[in-house]
Amino acid sequence: MDIENTLQLAASKAIEEIYGVLPNLNLVQIQKTKREFEGDFTLVVFPLLKISKKNPEVTAQEIGERLVSSSKAITSFNVVKGFLNLSLSYTFWCNTLNTIASTIDFGYAKSDSSGKTKMVEFSSPNTNKPLHLGHIRNNLLGFSISRILQANGDKVIKVNLVNDRGIHICKSMLAWQKFGKGETPENSGKKGDHLVGDYYVLFDKEYKKQIEELQAKGMSEEEAKTKAPIILEAQEMLLKWEAKDSEVYSLWQTMNQWVYTGFDVTYSALGIEFDKVYYESETYLLGKSIVNEGLAKGVFVKKPDGSVWIDLNDHGLDEKLLLRADGTSVYMTQDIGTAVQRFNEYHLDDHIYVVGNEQEYHFNVLKLVLLKLDYKWTDHLYHLSYGMVQLPEGKMKSREGKVVDADDLVEEMVSTAQEMSQELGKLNELNAKEASEIVTMIGLGALKYFILKVDPKKNMTFNPKESIDFNGNTGPFIQYTHARIQSVLRKAIEVGIVIPHSINPVELSGKERELIQLVSAFPSVVKQAAEILSPALLANFAYELSKEYNQFYHDFFIIKEEDEKVRQARLLISHEVANAIRLSMWLLGIDVPNRM
Predict the structure, then answer these.
(1) 293 and 373, same structural domain?
(2) Structurally, how many domains does the chain consist of?
(3) Residue 284: what pLDDT?
(4) Is-contact 589 143, C-beta < 8 A?
(5) Which pLDDT belongs to residue 27?
(6) Domain boundary among 39, 71, 88
(7) What is the domain extent for residue 544?
(8) C-alpha closest to that of 192 among 252, 261, 277
(9) Quick count: other Cβ atoms within 10 Å of Cβ 471?
């Protein structure tokens, strides 16, 4: 239903008929006509001059005449230098609107229609601290990408890999053993992931203190970092964990469960869900087994201290550790095992890792290691490398406790939405339950939209105050537009006007044609967002559509329009704009209210 594509094919056919050459579609450039010129769409003629072997004006004139004579949709044209401006018939625009209205979930492909199975891994938290602002961007990106791929007909499996083992986990456990005095979420009133995170910070403080003490005794900083008693104890604890020491293992299970319970609350608040959760503690052994097989085949090398490495200098990288000298595994080890397990389980067409750009090296190495192990699907591993997110105050540091906690941020967003909505009178006609639901929707919508409207590859600064604004490129502005349209449709019904499912041909204004064109482009936006893995395209589509509708709303009568045919067209346009806003925002994981 993309009008540009339809015109591109029609122009291509006309060019072949006139000049006997079928042009490459890249040369047939269709764009919206600039506002200062007459027309709906413009064909850029300059790339076609090698085919026509004529000047731009003559070429445009010949193509325009052929298009008008061969297409009922194109009623007239005008030539401005090398630009052919085409005007489309009112019948074409009305038929386009009717097609949109008759298509359920217009813009979405049928479920599983692509025949491809794709896995999206996101979140991937450590069980030594609560989720923070950086995790929020990760979760929102992963969840939105999953929905976008589904809307393109892929079968999508949303997975979370919980990093529940390793030295960082032992740090929280050891600090709790030393300083916890039996503290639990129940007797402290703290959320479990917050409680464990506090001990991770406490470990770091004690570690730094011991380093300073050793340096005061003449030891270098590097040596002090390796010989501080508390880090040696943490390393010993990791060895005990891998050996399944009963006391260490029991503590690990208990503290991890505290964290999982806390994570579930945060995921629920954000509207995030997974189809399957993997745990590093269950996948690292497979990774170790595969590394040992690779060692036997000569893919890897064992150094004198017993550690296992791979040399990637020939690929412009360096040597990479796969197993430590004490036999314990590293992140790379478990990622190898996890990838192999998933492709064996699901026979994936593609696997997408939603992980920050600081891990680009890691995923380059992972693909190379798997390639050297002769796995044929390595070209189907994709790293959606996204930029860091910070506050106006600067970068966050979780081990120092200097982070923006996800739970606190969600609570703050909802609270701010409540204050601003009351101040603007947005909740005056709602009961307490409706008002509570809507301010939660607005607060979360503001948070999600502000993050997802930015190209994933870019670093970004999240400004809570800017995100909750009922004007400008924000979630609340788009949500309010949807609520405004629903109000128009309700008022029409209240005065006895039936919202049409289709309309008869009627003369439409330029703004009405522009709205139809924008909605008709929705399927191509969904498709492109999937191709480049960027929810930002959909966010900005929803904003442009909302902005254009609000101008239309202020400039034209809708319910009070006296011409019944025009009124029906405007109501159907309003209905389909609301649908497109709702569907595009759903792909971002954002709900839109019917009243505000």
Answers:
(1) yes
(2) 3
(3) 87
(4) yes
(5) 95
(6) 88
(7) 407-587
(8) 261
(9) 9
Q: Roughly what angle, to the nearest 10 degrees, separates helices 522-532 and 510-520?
A: 40
Please give the model's pTM, rounded to 2 decimal places: 0.91
- State whether 179 and 283 are in the same domain: yes
Inter-axis angle of helices 432-452 and 475-494, nearest 10:
130
Residues 416, 145: contact at Cβ < 8 Å? no
How far is 452 from 169, CA to CA, in rounded Å? 31
Do 492 and 557 share a domain, yes or no? yes
99 lies in some domain:
no
Residue 16 is part of a domain; what is its CATH number? 3.30.1360.70
With CA atoms as reference, report the closest residue to 195 among 182, 179, 204, 183.
183
Does some domain include residue 117?
A: no
Contact status, residue 133 vs residue 514, Cβ threshold 8 Å: no
Task: Note whether 396 and 365 are within 8 A (CB).
Answer: no
Query: Is 44 in the same domain as 155?
Result: no
| Chosen domain end from 400, 428, 463 | 400
Under 8 Å between Cβ of 67 and 86 = yes
pLDDT of the residue at 397: 46
pLDDT along the chain (596 residues), means of 10: 86 96 95 92 96 96 96 95 95 96 94 91 94 94 98 97 93 97 96 96 96 96 96 96 95 97 97 95 91 95 96 91 89 93 96 96 96 96 94 54 79 89 80 90 96 96 85 94 97 96 95 96 96 98 98 97 97 98 98 92
| CB atoms near residue 311 (< 10 Å) | 12
Strand (E) positions, 294-429? 301-302, 308-311, 319-323, 350-356, 381-386, 389-390
Element (H, E) at 585: helix 564-587
